Each structure stands twice: as structure tokens, then as C-alpha cells.
Amino acid sequence: MLKKRTKIVLLKCFKIMFLLLCCGTGLYAQDTGSITVIVQTTKGETLPGASVNLSNSSKTLAKASVSDPKGMAQFSALPKDTDYCLSISFVGMETQTRCGYAVKEGQKVTIVVKLEDSKSRQMDEVVVVGYGTQKKENLTGAVGVIREGQIAGRPVTQTSQALTGLTPGVYINANTGEPGNDQANIRIRGTGTLNDANPLILIDGIEGPLDNINPSDISSVSILKDASSAAIYGSRAANGVILVTTKRGKIGQKTAVSYNFYSGISTPTVLPKMVTDNAEYLRLYREAQANGGSTVSYTDADIERYAKLPSTDWIDVIFRDAAPITQHALSVNGGTEKVSYLFSSAYLDQAGLLDGDQKYRRFNSRLNMDMKIAEKLDGGISFSYSRGKSSLASQQVLGELTGKGSLAFEGGLTQHPLTPVYDSEGRYAGPEEALGLRADRASGRAILDHQNTGALNSDLLGSAFLSYEIFKDFKLKGTVAFNSQTRHTEDSNSEFKQYDWLTGKQLSVSNPGSTFTDVQSSKFNVTSWLQATYEKNFGKHYLKGLAGFNQETSEQQSNLLSQTGFATPSQIIYGKGSQTTAINGTKGEWALRSFFGRINYSFDNKYLLEANIRRDGSSRFGKNNRWAVFPSFSGGWIASNEDFWNKSIMNYFKLRGSWGQLGNQNTALYPFASQVSLENNYVLGSGQVSGAALATLGNPDLKWETTTTTDIGIEMGFFNSKLTIEADYFNKRTDDILTELNNPLVTGVVSPTIVNAASVENKGVEGMFSYKDHIGAVTVGIGANVTYIKNKVLAINPALSGSDDRVEISSINNIYLIRGEAINSIYGYVTEGIFQNADEIRSAADHSLFGSPAPGDFKIQDTDGDGKITEKDRVVMGNRQPKWLYGFNLSAGYKGFDFSALFQGIGKADAFISRLNGPFPRAGIREIWEDRWTPENPSTTMPRLWVDRNGYNGKTVESLPSSFWVQHRDYLRLKNIQVGYTFSKNTLKRLPVQSIRIYVNGQNLWTKTKFKDFDPERLDTEAYVTTSLPQAKIITGGINVIF
Amino acid sequence: MKLQHLILLLLSLASTSCKKDFLEKQPEDTLAPEVFYTDAASLKPGLYGVYRSLREGAVFGNPIELEGISDNAILNTRAAELINFSKGVGITDNTEKLAEYYLYNFQVIQRANLLLDNISAPGDITAAERTAIESEARILRAMAYMRLVYLYGRIPLVTTSISRAQAMALKQPSREELISFITTELSDAGMKLAVKPYAGETGRLTRQAALGMRAKVLVYEARMGKGSWGDALAAVKGASESAVSGGAKLMKTGTGANGQANYEAIYSESQENNEEILFQVKFDATIGQGQSLHSNYAPNQANQTARISVHTNFANDFYGTDGLPVTAAASNFNPLKPYENRDPRLSATIYLPGNTYFFGVFRGKAGNASLETDFAVKKYTYAVLSAADNGLDVIVLRYADLLLLLAEAENKVNGPTLTAYNAINEVRSRVNMPAVKSGITAVQFNDEVIHERRVELGFEGQRWFDLVTLGIAGQKINAINELGRKFIPAKQELFPIPKSEIDLNKNLVQNPGY
Which partner from A217, A510, A1010, B14 sits 20 to 30 angstroms from A396, CA to CA? Predict the structure, then answer.
């Protein structure tokens, strides 16, 4: 019975949609009367710019207007009706809806509407929380909310980036400005684990990738920051939870079609400035070689000769002047009495900043549909599909695209300016061999043309739910959802050669035989849950209960093929290489089963209590410790609702506190099991033989990682909540962190074993304020948020003592975990200055650890004062975790004009940069090195020149990191600025549209930072400057039409 | 609609699979050891897994690296701990190379132990096959212990699989126990293997290889005064006889008249299963199992950065074609043409200034920013510009080495006898170098043998062990006078036991001087 009915409803619904899409809407009626609305404040002042909507009782007619400078809005040519409804709204004021106006033939009706200032408007908001919604007023946990208006119209291509700077406690770091690869890392209230610290992301309740959502489909984003709000997702909520709610149609809502288009250009925010003068370059290179005790093969005559020859600005060669970006988005939503729907599609086309084939194209489509199946029975379905295809600069690490690397950028930074791009025969040029210059980095131009990584991601998410009100106030809801993701990456490096630009002699061949790697991976998740809710008011008591069951399974698979020996470099086709150098695959699955419950109680709207509990079982742990319980408690006091409270200035005051525990199971799939890997083939005789060996040592006693969070917050509203302030103190401590600890070497097991070992603490405060008002016809808004976080590793391996508890995660990138310091600290020798003369060297501590220094070399601090530089002199030189996060926004509106600006910044964050930052990273030199130490220019900050990996300073760079390479990554950035104009209905009389808005938008237009030559918003764990491409400065113009 | 129906429907929606084993998931692309070794068919893959671990640079895969702490050469990048070590600067917080030599040799041991723990797995296999697999695993394990003893001294003796917890409570046995374990295993297991190479399976261990390694251990011990030369000589003779009966002889190519060609053929890819080789680590680049010695060490300015510079001292040590040191008064050495009329092994082993090579004319450090001397390693590299991996096998033991061990041991026991002369002269005549002068004293003869080892086995990973076991490391290294080379006696004969190991296991005792 149910099935049949659903079918009919669905059919109807599709029919309606079809009609709506094809035919549009039209109204044919006789002109008979008019209504004039005069909008005023309670004091009788006229109120221009208010939006006035009018509809008739059968909803077949709907009109919108905006009050003019006299506060008037006119609706003429209205057919006669007895029940017109008006809805008048204005920012900062209570919306009024009035019905029952009758219009007779030839009649002119005038209505005066007085709008009141809104009362605690922001506090009345409904916030999406775990498995439900709640009034913001009643929240006892810390929840950050981002509304659609804060994202709309911005040319953000990845949703993760759209969240930057909008709410406190959330750190968003875009790793690279490369389209399609520019997803940002998200940290909620600091990095709380040594494992994947990204929050759990749920899209309409289903775990999925944030970045494949079309940003204009988003209705709201809730960020659950403390234990109380997130505990309902206990098992995976330790890093916080982000709940994305997509837009849906409304029952009985008129069809609306919205089309949004923007187009513009993007350019790099910053590019390194290089020495491009040939003669100066050759002199600097000679100086650097001489400092290392070497001579060069070229002479002054050669320098003279090159002074007359043109030079190449290689950075200019590999970057585009401007890269186009375009997006189209269309959405249709509406509803009948029984069915509502939203359908949307969007297409994004963005070119990369590099002058190659780099681009990103994404297609999104979504269908959300809700049905009233019977009186107490509701149902709904959602489908979304996303296909993102990116053509990227060649990556350092293909498998997971984690390298974010750009070999082309490196290939542009490390070229001699005196080498032309092509030789006289149009082949890739190299330096004149007779000069004896190093030339071991291939031409950036050749890399752009011959090395490419392509990635194709397609995601299909689907879900269906049924909800039934079994008896009054008691609802049961069941949901089944799936998420299918496929990833396909291809990396091809075709053979190319470089020739001495002068003599035509072949200098090198890169990628001989060409290489090709193909990785195909897929993931399929099925989640189902059942939840029962009960909500009831008993006099002054309010009670809400939730109980539920959830289970989830996931299967994943990945296959890799690498080939070489392709006949023609231009034809690199899957499977056609003559040699297969690697072929392998991985496969695995995990499952999770959970029971959860929540009780909310409030008395007289003054005292609030909430308790959550969740019990989780995970397949990732052995039988011994598979299940765990995560509780949380919170309470609030709305003091402003007490009788004694005087609301005249501070109209709202709430104190709240929470405590709870959350879990994390984000670790390897089978960490409990020892595993024999079959990937140990060997060669015997003339053939390959399969070998097997122990790959990992399992830990059958592994258990959940637990995060305990305490949060104390206050919320205040002033002047009828025109001004709101919110502040929180938090203390988040994670214990039993699933830590990869190296096994004792004597076990002979190279890969680490995962044990419950480390502890990390994040303490901090966060606050925000928001002010919204109108001055006459001008609306203004200002908001700001700030967060301070102190991150500290309490222990890594409790078996070790004090300073021995230190782990080197990466030597090249200088990443350390040190007890008592922040996660991923930068550790090494402090450079105190530059040795100016031999006397200084003689009187300084013994530097022989590095060889023998000469004037112009770094002077290292003898931290322990033993007169000798040893490894004991190393200290923590920098902190990667930003201590300060902040953002502020401004908005204003006048009549049809609107303006908004968003600034965002981080403070007290460092990056370790090495090697390619050196004076001569093989070839090429940046302008900053012109200020080097020389006897004539006795700099105290810049050392003398050297050639990479040669000499005293070179060795320091390579193997003994020094503080010279630590740079402050602090920045303040104008993330977004937007100006728009909305044409009122009156000016659009002749067009069949409701409204048209045109706007211009600028992204990343201005940055203030001390970070030199490269973008400070970058992957902070890589020492290679070229690992991250600069962020894009994007200027777009757009139009939004609503029909 | 009936309420019950609806609830049922919702329940079924919400719990699609309520299987009992819902949370029981096992690895799908790997196997638990208990599962893997339930069948004797897994023994062979298990053994090949042990062989595979020989490829690590710290085991036998990189014969060049340790040359960089000997008097032959110095490393210049990517091996900070070894570079510091070679300059006598003791970094005790060793996590890099000085720990790798420990870890990867124990990896061989761990793999062998796991296989040997399960050697009686039931299945379709003959007793002979089972014995061969067992013996090879034991020999490989003993060879790893041999490396560990001579690099680190007293290390824990582990002969079965151990857990994390057990690993943190191990104790170090005496050095005598370790040496006795190694020599006993090599002879017991070695004697169970056949003498001839396994048909179609070159690269597998043979009896002569096991006995050859054992002979080397006994020579090392005798050099250090910890064993008798008589035992050493017996072991070398036994190994040589076994090798010869297995067809071992010095490699020659073509007519055998071109000494340099004869010598270069030993380590050329086209001849990589030649009869001189007693044991080697196998590589094959065409199936993705190559090694990167060429890309790491060749002086290829375009793609590579020569990560090792050969000491001038090494180049100078090669005799002239007259069989005399270049410093000898009667030498025909011409300082204006220093590389002419020299032992052909000189230009077979290293690049010399003025050589034409794949990148034009070799000009030493003047032409290559990463070189610190005027000499670069040539052995084990290719004459090509490409940085791709190569398939050349790495030699662990070859017949010439055994001949020189024979000359050394025979001279120690019986003086410079004909047997001793024949052994060294056979090696010399292969490269057309004159025979050792007759009538010299046993001490002089010994010096000739040690010199011969340096020039014959240069860059094959032998020099460091020779210097240390002969007790001449300090004398030789401190005489280099180049690039800050330094050796601290009574300390640097051994690497430090990795600090991380001592941190985790309070039973361990650090080596003297660290």
C-alpha cells in the first residue's frame, strides 16, 4: 500500500517538475485593483529598502517589491480576491505577516505597516545539531553556525575554503592554490591527535567529502566544537563534527528557479622575484662556487658575452598571466501540498595558475525531495552526484595526491636565467655546456609539457528516510544511506631531451622510455540508523529525549599499475608500455555499530540540562577492547529570563558549561593483526619469484583514543540583540592516542606498530561579536571572531623519560614531536648571526660539527654553554600550530546595493623552509640574496653565498637544520570582498523575473605577511617551497537571476 | 496502514545487515602469520622474503656506502651520520644510517626466524626441499649476524620470533657466543646444501658460499687475535676447494688478454652470473626490481649528484703497470701523465680527471658541484646519462676474495709459500699486473695481500671490515689528510648501539667510547 502510494506521489512530482522546467509559469488574470504598502518604524519613520512580498490565498500569485525612499511599495493590477497576504521584512526588524486583505474591482487599498526592532532575533535561530535541531537559545554546547548568505556568491571552488574566518575555533588552511587539489585542512580547536585530525563531516547526516558539494546548495553549516554537542557522534567526534545541511523545497511553496553565473580571472597571490640579469647572475654563481672552494669554468669574457644576450624569467615562463574561471549554477525548488523538492546542477571550469594544461572541471547535481505520505508519515530522498576532473601539475606523491607538489614550479625556480626556453631548432634548451654550470633540474617548460597528473573523482551519495509520529510528540525515523566514491589518478611522464642552446649538443634525457602510473580506487559506505524522539512541554517543564541505533560498513579497494618502455613519448596509453614496473592492489573494510541517547530538559526557559551517551563498537580493534562508552553532560542558565533581570541594555545573558568524552578510531584498518605481506618478490635465476614477509606487528590490545573536553561559555545580547557577544574557554585533552611507535630495531620490523600511547592537550579561548543595525535606509553589520589555542604534546611514548620522549617524524621537513612542545615542532640549531671575521670564529664555540666556518657563515648558538656545538644545543625553533586565529567581516546595504568584506588571519605560526630556499638551489637565485654577506657588505642577517650542498652553510642546510630557515607564517588576508546590486521588481516589469542581482567579487586581493616570495597559506609540513603553489587571487563578476 | 508493519519496515531499513560477525573484519590483502604458514607451500615465498631483505643498502644492497667511512672515500650527502662518523664527530643520537645498519640486518634475522619457527608446516614438499629452505634461512640469518657483530659488537642473539615486549628485555651475549653461533650455523647449514649452483636459480645460496663466508669470519677473528690462523687457513682451504669443485674461477672475457676488460666484466650486467661470483644479491630493473647505485653515486651532472667522493689517497695507492708503488724510486710513474701506465683496475674502479665519459670530459670537482675531490666512483655505475634504476647484481662474495684470503692465511701459518704466491698472483695476472716480487718476508707479503685487497675489492664493501679487523683503521684514516677525515681508536671500530634501542631496553650496554 505504502509502496504504491509513494510511487504515485513520486510520479506526480516528476510530472510537476517536468512541467515547471519546460513551461515555466504564467499568470493570466484580469487587472482589477491595487495595494499600496507603506512601511514605517514604530516611531513612524519611513523605512525604505524593506522587502515586501504579496501572495493570494491560493498561492497562484506572488509578487515581491522593495519599499521606495518614501517607504512605499505598490502592487497594481491585482485580480480581485478576498484573502491577500503580505510579508514585510527588514534586517534587524521583526518580520510581519498579515493576511485577509480583500481587493475589489477598481479598488486601491493602502496599508500602513509598522515594523518593530527584532527581539533577540539571533537567539531565536534554529541550529542544526546531531540527529535534530535546537533553538540557539537552548543550546548548552559550543556550536558554530555558518549560514548560506555567508557563502553565497563567492567564487570558492572548494567548500572547505568557504568556511575560513567565519567562526571562531576553526582553522582552515588551504595547502595549495592548484585547482582541483586545493582542498583545505580543517582543524577544530587545535590539532588534538597525531592521527587524521580532520573533523567528521556529515552531509545531511551522512559521512561524505565536504569538497564535492556545490557551495550554493548549502543551507547551513553547524560546527560542533565541544563534547556536549558532538558526543552524540561519540566514536568519531573527537576532532569535532561539521554538519552540512543542504537546501530543500518547502511544502506549499511556489516554484522558484534561480540561475547564478560568475566568470573571472585568477592570478597568483605572490611569485618569487628572481635575479634575471645574466652578468650579475654569473658573478653571483662564481662567488658562491668560490666560497665553497671551487672555481668556475667561465671567464670574465663569458660574462661580458652573456651581458649582451637576452635572459629568461623562468617564473614568468611557467606561470600564466591570468587563468579564467567560470561557474554556472541552476536550481529549481518548490512544493505542492504533498511533495516538495529541490533540484540543482552546477558546472565549474577553472584553469590553473601554471602555464600548462592544468585545469579543474566539476559537475554537480542534487535532488532533495520530501513527501507527506500520510497524515503522520513523512518520507524523503536525496541524491547527489559530483564529478571533478582535474589536470594537475606533476605530483611528488601520486597515490593519495598528498604531495601537493609541483615539479614544474621547481623546474622554473631552479633554472639559469641565461638559458633560453628553446634552442634555435625549437628544442628544449639547456645551458651552454662550456660554462660548466650545474644543470640537474629539468626545464620547467618541458615539465609542464611532458609531466602530468590527472585526477578524476566521482561521488554518488543517496539516502532515503521515513518518519512516523507513532503517538503525539513521539517520532520514529529510519534512514538508509550510501556513499560511493571512486578516484582515478593517472601520472604520465613522457621522455624529453634538453640540448646545449648554443652548440645543440644533447645534455640530458628525462624520463627515458616514459613512465606511466595509474591508480584506481573506490570506496563504498552504507550507513543506516534508526532514531526515536520525544518532545513535550509540561507547564514550565520542557523535555526532549532521543534514542538511536546506527551502523556503518565501508569497503575500499585500490589498484595500481606502473609501466615504462613506451614506443612514442606522445602516446602513453594504459597497458601499452613494454615493461610493467609495478602492479599491486590493496583491499579492506571496516564496520562500526553504535547506540546513542540524549536527554534535554529545561525549566521555565531559565535552567537547561543535557546529557548524551553513546556506546560504540569498531572493527578496527581486537575483541579485547572493541566497545567503548562515551558520555557527556552540559548545563546552561539563561539569567536574562530571571524576573530580576533588567533587559533594557543587556537583553540576553546565558552561562553554559559542558564536559564529555569523545572517541577516535581513525587508524589503520587492522592494527590489531600482525600481517604477512606478499610484496616481497625477488629475482632468482632469470625470473621473478614471489616472496612474503612480516610487514607489521599487530597489537591485539589496542583500544579507542579518548578526548575529554571541558567548555565554559557565555552568550550575551545587547540592545535587543543588535549586538551579540559569545565567548568560550575550552580544554581538550586526548589520551591513549593511537600512535605509530617504532618497534625496537631488534624486532627487525621496519614499519611501526600502533599502540595507545601519546597524549595531547589543546587549551584556549575563543570569542566573537556581531553587530547589526540600520541607520535610516542603510543597514550595517560588523562581526569579528578570535581564537587563542595552546597546543601541547603531553607524552608520545610514556615508556621514555623527559627529553628522550622525542620523535623525528621527518628529518628533511624538520617535523618533531617533543614532549611538552606543540605538535610538529621545528627543532634544531639557533643561528645567532653571521661570523664577521676570523677573530669572531676563534672566540666562538667549537663549530667543527659543521666543518670549519669562515667569515660570512652562520654562527650557531651554544645553548648549553659547553664551548662546543653538539646535538645537545638543539632547541625548538618554531611552532607550526597557529596560536591565534581571527577573522572579521563588514557588511552594508543601501537600497539595492550590498557590500561585504571578510578578513582572515593567523598569528604565531611558523614554517620551516629549506633547500630550495638556499641561494642556489642547484640553479637560479632569488633577489633577496643580493643582500648577502660579503666583505664589502658585512650583513648580520644574510650569510655568504654557497652552492647547494656544498661547504659549511650548505651542509647546515642539508643535514643540520638551523633557525635561519624558520619563517613566520603569520598573515592577514582580505579573503573576500563583494559588491552587488539588486534590481527591484519595479525596474524589471518587462522581464519575467523576480529579481536580478549583479555583483563583483574579489578573493585574496590583499595580504599582509612577513613571509617572503611565497604564499604563507601553504602546506606547513613541507620544507620545499615549491610544494605548494601560491593561492589564487580571483576577481569575478556575476549575475543571479530568480524567476 | 498498521503501525506494526511500519515499525517493521523502519527496523529493516535501519539494520540492513545484522550479522553476528558484523564487527569481525580481517585483512584482505595481507595474511596473518598463523594463517600464512598453515601450508608448506608458503615456505618458499617465506624464504624468498628473506632473500629480498638482503637488498637493503644496510645489508648487502649498497656496497659503496661503507666505503665512505673507510679510507677509500667520503660521503657528501644524504648520510649525515656516516659523514659525521667519518670525521670522528660522534653523534650519539643516531636515528638515521647508524640505526639502519642495525634495523635492516635484524630484519633479515626476523624474517628467517619466522620462517624457521614454521619450517615444519604440513604440506606437499619433499624432505630435501624442506632441508634446503631451512638451511638457506639459517645461512642468511648467520650472514646478517656476521654484519652486526663486525659493525656493532655485542648485539642480542635472537633465534625465534619475538614480541615488542620481549624485544625490550633482551640481553647481549658474549662476543664469543655470537661468533660461535655464526660459524657453527654457516658450517652446519652450509654442509646441507649442494655444491653446484641451483639449476635455473642463480642467486640462491650454495655450500661454497656458506663456507666462504665462514672462512671470512675466521680470518677476521684470527686478524683480531681472537681465533687461530690455523683454523682460518683450514676454513679458507675448505671453502676454496668447494668453490673450485663448483666451477669457480676468475672471470675473463674474450681472449683474456685485456686486463681491464676482464676485471670490468665481473660487475657488468651482461655477465652478472659469471663463474667468479660465489654469492650475489639479485636485481632486475626490467621488472621493477632495480637498484639505484648509479643514480646515487655516478658523477652525472645532469641528473645525479655524486654522493661519494673518492679520496686522492685511494687513487694514489694503485701501482704502476711495473708493479711498483708510484712513490717508489724505480717507478715509471710520470707526474705529468699521472693516470697512464697504472694498474688497469684504477680506471675500472673510478673516474679520473681527463677521462671522457657519458657527460663529456670528467674534470673532477671543478666540473661537478657535488664532488669534493677529483675522483668519482665508477664501479657499479653505468655509462649513461639516465637516472633510472638499474638491474646490476651486487656481489657479496667472489672467488678473487677467497684467493686473497687464502694467500693471507697461508702466509700467516706457513709463510710466503708457493701456495700463497700462486693465490695472489692469480688475481694479479688476470689484470696483467706483474707477479709479487719473490723472496720477500712474511710481513712484506702480508702487506702486499692487504694492498691487493684494497685495489681488487675497492668499492665492494670490504675495506671497512678489513681496516677494523686488521686494526689499521686509525693508522690509515688519520693519514688521509683530506676533507677532515678522522678516526678515534678504541671507539670507532664499532658503531654505537642505536640510542633508541638503549632507551627502550635498560639491559643493553653501550659500546666503549659512546
Answer: A1010
